[in-house]
């Protein structure tokens, strides 16, 4: 099948989704000799745009997994603002070594409902937003080598397509989609961390980086220690602060992080669907 345009489309608060999506897109672009365009909808200003694609486009579309699903703040935007018109799509989700549950099948379904044809899909592992040790530094070289081999197979599949497929690629997950994963404490009781917001210690130099990177636009530019609006716990501000001034000290949040770090320390491997 002739491909005219390739897009890397993603939300990525701490950069793991961006790394895998852009790598796949750039490799497909190089193989098919088509330049790659990027749509990064991480920041609130970018989530005002509508994007329309067409037959002959390949769209590598990535989101992180939040509570086993597409992040709930993104779902209405993705459902309402991307029109496929028979463009080929590759849904990709990044998860923090626990599980991706129904995130990939949910993303595949939303893209298909929007007129994309998902021809491949993948769940990769990224350092957990809440932690410095859970899946630390992933996706790493081993993951990226897997992504490279997978992308070579995608290129072959696209080149051998003689017509637009009717059915989307089969991926793991439950359909109907299950409810979101509920965070637990050490005793296995549900914990509610919805209202938790990062705090700021006195090493803050007021550089404003956290204000710029917050996907919710929730940090006060006049006083970066103040988070007056909603926080999705993406931890972009915590991980990107140059002086490590941002931190979470909520007891329930820390207990849930401990549960994750203890219970999901094994190395999960990427899952690929073609
Ligand atoms: C609110 C929230 C919920 C999360 N839920 C899950 C989850 O259910 N399973 C999992 O393995 N990782 C989960 N994670 C971790 C992220 O999926 C993971 O760190 C991902 O690589 C982050 O992507 P990014 O770097 O593109 O922001 C969650 C992270 C956040 C912030
Ligand atoms: S990124 Fe860190 S140092 Fe810079 S304003 Fe935010 S909290 Fe302060
Ligand atoms: S304030 Fe909340 S939503 Fe904004 S960057 Fe920090 S963790 Fe993410």
Describe the structure in your own words.
The chain has helices spanning 16-32, 75-81, 103-113, 141-160, 209-213, 236-240, 251-263; strands spanning 5-10, 36-40, 51-52, 57-64, 82-83, 88-95, 117-118, 121-125, 199-200, 246-247, 271-273. The chain folds into two domains: 5-179 and 267-273, Rossmann fold (3-Layer(aba) Sandwich); 199-249, 2-Layer Sandwich (Alpha-Beta Plaits), CATH 3.30.70. It is 28% helix and 16% strand. Strands 1, 2, 4, 6, 7, 8 and 11 form a seven-stranded mixed beta sheet that branches. The protein has a two-stranded parallel ribbon with strand order 3-5. Strands 9-10 form a two-stranded antiparallel ribbon. Helix 3 links the parallel strand 6 (88-95) and strand 7. It is globular. By secondary structure, the protein is an alpha/beta fold. Helix 1 (16-32) packs across helix 4. It binds flavin mononucleotide (FMN) and iron/sulfur cluster (2 copies). Residues 198, 214-216, 218-219, 227, 231-237 line the site of one iron/sulfur cluster.
Concise account of the structure shown:
Helix content is 28%, strand content 16%. With 274 residues, it is an alpha/beta fold.
Quickly count the helices.
7
CATH class placement of the largest domain: Alpha Beta
Mean pLDDT: 97
Give the overall silhouette. globular
Write out the distinct hetero groups bound to the structure: flavin mononucleotide, iron/sulfur cluster
Q: Give the termini distance in whole angstroms.
A: 16 Å
- Counting structural domains, the number is 2
Instruction: State the major sheet.
Output: 7 strands, mixed
Low-confidence stretches: none
**Beta fraction:** 15-25%
Order of helices and strands: EHEEEHEEHEEHEHHEHE
Give the structural class: alpha/beta
Gyration radius from CA atoms, angstroms = 19 Å
CATH topology of the largest domain: Rossmann fold
CATH architecture of the largest domain: 3-Layer(aba) Sandwich
Number of strands: 11
Approximately how much helix is present in the residues?
25-40%
Q: Quick one: CATH superfamily of the largest domain?
A: Flavodoxin domain
């Amino acid at each position: 099948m002739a491909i005219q345009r390739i897009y890397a489309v993603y939300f990525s608060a701490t950069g793991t989704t961006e790394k895998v999506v852009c790598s796949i897109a750039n490799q497909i672009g190089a193989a098919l000799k088509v330049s790659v365009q990027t749509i990064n909808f991480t920041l609130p200003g970018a989530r005002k745009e509508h994007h329309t694609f067409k037959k002959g486009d390949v769209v590598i579309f990535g989101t992180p997994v939040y509570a086993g699903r597409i992040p709930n703040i993104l779902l209405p935007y993705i459902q309402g603002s991307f029109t496929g018109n028979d463009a080929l799509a590759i849904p990709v989700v990044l998860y923090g070594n626990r599980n991706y549950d129904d995130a990939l099948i949910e993303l595949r379904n939303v893209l298909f409902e929007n007129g994309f044809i998902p021809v491949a899909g993948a769940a990769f592992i990224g350092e957990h937003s809440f932690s410095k040790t859970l899946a630390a530094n992933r996706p790493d070289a081993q993951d990226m080598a897997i992504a490279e081999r997978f992308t070579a197979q995608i290129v072959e599949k696209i080149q051998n397509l003689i017509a637009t497929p009717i059915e989307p690629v089969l991926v793991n997950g439950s359909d109907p989609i299950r409810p979101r994963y509920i965070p637990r404490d050490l005793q296995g009781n549900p914990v509610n961390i919805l209202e938790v917001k990062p705090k700021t210690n006195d090493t803050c130099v007021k550089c404003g980086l956290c204000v710029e990177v917050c996907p919710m636009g929730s940090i006060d530019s006049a006083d970066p220690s103040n988070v007056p609006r909603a926080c999705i716990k993406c931890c972009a501000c915590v991980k990107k602060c140059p002086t490590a001034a941002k931190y979470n000290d909520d007891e329930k949040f820390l207990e849930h992080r401990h549960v994750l770090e203890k219970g999901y320390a094994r190395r999960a491997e990427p899952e690929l669907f073609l």
